[in-house]
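User: I'm curious whether this sequence folds into something compact or stays loose and floppy. Could you predict its structure so I can see for myself?
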Amino acid sequence: MTRVFGRIGLLSFGGPAAQIALMHRELVEAKAWLTERDFLRALSLCMLLPGPEAMQLATYAGWRLRGTAGGLLAGLLFVGPGAVVITVLALLYASYGQLPLVQAAFLGVKAAVIVVVFQALRTLSAKALTGPQDRAIAGLSFLALFVAGLPFPLVIAVAGLWGLLTADAQTTLPASTPAVLAPAVPSRPLRTLAVWGTLWSAPLLLLWAVDARFLLELGLFFSKLAVVTFGGAYAVLGYMTQTVVSDLGWVSTDQMIDALGLAETTPGPLILVTQFIALLAGFAQGGIIGAIAAGLLALWVTFIPCFLWIFLAGPWLEAINRQPRLTCALRAITCAAVGVIASLALWFALHVLFQTVSSPQILALPSPDWSSFDPAACALTVLAAVLMGGLRMGFVPAMGFLAAAGLGLGMI
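Assistant: Here's the prediction. I'll summarize afterward.
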């Protein structure tokens, strides 16, 4: 298990789709540790839960094989390599990211980020928006966030409630064959909730006791983020960006976009961008020691809940998958996530292509200063679209090429 899940963790580039495909190849095809039906049922469960579905799928597979210890092993090996790389990249960025030539190179990274977010939007919308109601939910979610500036958790909660209330209670889901493997441990929900809830809250209570206000605020925010992370990392990035840039002022808009670009290049779940942001915020507050403390806290409150959800819900997999109302609620949340990602994509594009973007007081609709249009950023974005959209170049090589192009423009 260490060898297999370690290989998955080291090779898990390319976002959730590529990571899930890698796990299918390793766990179903190569090792036959899970049947095809087991794998798909587990994936459905992970999509119902908040948090990164690929990491939770790995955790579930480890739990099915060797109980809690197996789940911990699989989950930590999936996250660990990327967390180490993110720490190194964030500290280097905090120390040298403001140099003019480095900023010129990161202009190319920002262009790549715009294209990759629009690609994620296209992929998810093609799968999720299959009817007029789906498109209406996505459109209303976009307007609620981008124009009205409503809170992300409210938008997701309303979408889920709509899906729950409009579901056909008489709908029955197809029966599935029994799982090959019996549940690794019996269901002890109260004990599981007590143990993992205590682990989750312990550092927050300690920070409250010693009056470490910045770290406590950071821990509480990323804990809240762990509860509302439905629809994938791109969906919650809009909420995180609004909070850490506009409300809390921990990072700038440019730093947020750079963080996403660097997180795309590392193995592991994209939600590791939370660790990157925490490291930058901690570095600004207390140097390297502050950065390490903030990064570790963000990792803890982001991923401890993932283990809690899996260990709590895993024994109830069959029952959960047979609830049509939950399925309809998830579908509505996914449609809302399309609108959220559209808002994020447009927000990123405006802040890259224009040097000055202001937000009116009444509505949240960003208003670019047309005289601040950046032709270099536009040219790099078009180049990124050609490389990744037309030539289908992977994100990492395209980002390297675009960073070199941005550096060349900066030197000119």
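Summary: The radius of gyration is 21 Å. The first helix runs from residue 2 to 11.
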